[in-house]
Write a structure and sequence with these properties.
By secondary structure, this protein is of the alpha+beta class. The chain has five helices and two strands. A two-stranded antiparallel sheet has the order 1-2. It starts with a helix and ends with a helix.
Length: 120
Amino acid sequence: MSLTSAATLATLDRTGPRRITDLAAVEGVTQPAMTALVRVMEESGLVERRGDASDKRVTLVCLTEAGASYVRTRRQAGVTAFERLIGELTGDEVEALVAALPALTHLAELESQDREGPKQ
């Protein structure tokens, strides 16, 4: 799976259903590229398109249960990898990481705000 596909699934998991135009802007790709990507992920059963109840002209891309499961599995794999790597650090290095957590959390929040843009 491409990084853009994985990032798009993660965005849908975090923010809920989105328009293709919104997803394209968040992921930094063109609308035609996102349309093609959504089509492939739809064929794979990871996303589905649904109408927007508030605007019948709009179609939203939604994560399926298979897509949500994929995101959870990827996140757990990342957690497991970090746990293993942190286990190889010295006590001083672990303390330095713990001291840096507030700044790292703030960076993640800032990045998330930049990527997500306005919520629907």
